[in-house]
Amino acid sequence: MRKILRLFYALVPQFGRYRREKLEQVQHRLLERPSREDVLHGFRLILGREPEDQQAIDAHMHIPSVAELRRTLLVSSEFQGQYKVMRPEPYEHPSLSIERETIVFIHMQKTGGTTLRALLEGQFPADRVCPVRVDKLHLLSVAELGQFDFFAGHFDRSSICFIPRKEIKTVALFREPRARLISFYRFLRSHPTRDEFAADPGIRLANELTAEEFFERPEIRGLPAVYNHYLIALGASFSWFKRNQGSLSKEDISSAFDKAKRQIRAITAIGITERFDQSVESICKALHIDKRPSIAPLHVTSNFVELDARFKVVEPVAMTPRLASALDELTVYDDELYRFATQEFERQCAELGVSKV
Q1: pLDDT, tens only, 24-36
Q2: What gap in Å lies between CA 59 and CA 63, rounded to an integer?
Q3: Of 154, 163, 182, 187, whose CA is between 20 and 30 Å from 207?
């Protein structure tokens, strides 16, 4: 025991010196100008998303230090919006803003919506853009929601009911359902299975399994982002589906399907991903906003590897009979809703005088 104690006391100064050196290294690193990796890690760990594009990465790399980069992200409206429920603040009474024009972009997953969101968001002052981009609007107070005029995120249609406005203009993009699901698979498969992505089971399964195997897995088939996404987002709610998916009757599905069609018909401006340029023109005309001369696509899976070497290029997925069979039940209602949305899109284009590009 005495020998062990003598050895311990002999090593204590070395441990202390090692700790001081590591602390000095960290402090020195915080004062350096941020690298590309610092920016990527900052966005993922603080904002929970990828940078929009190379321009956003370059801009943040010009911040004077790593410490300042982190402070910038932490005080951003986007980060603060993710934690608004933890930061109650006084706001004006929502009746004072109830007449203001408001736009909500219902961003269905993997429809190319990030590019459109950036265009629409630019029409509003930064403090009027709601920073919440996930299905959490119900966690904000009515007074908080009343401060914003533009909302965009992976919301379901029920989320809009919480926004205190007399009139709300809605926008939605629709993509061919099988193509949307394959894009979802490729998006997950492009991610690494380590670091901040290690805990995501979807990313792990997409990297381990073929597309056929992936969409045959029960835990994947039960995701509201996978199972007839348009039906759930527009005909009911994500929470409704999660709670009742094990006991849904044909009547429940039929009711949700009818509601989804009514909601599509009520959407102010519809877009079709496969006809994106025409969609942008139609949406801009419907909302009375100026269309940009050109729009660069954002958040494209094939480009992730250019932003971060940890990502990988994912080969296109071929439609096999087995894959088609796996996707049948996952798209049976969305197929009908996509066709219905396309018809409504054609009608809106005709009314607005937008010709096929």
Answers
A1: 666 667 778 888 8
A2: 7
A3: 154
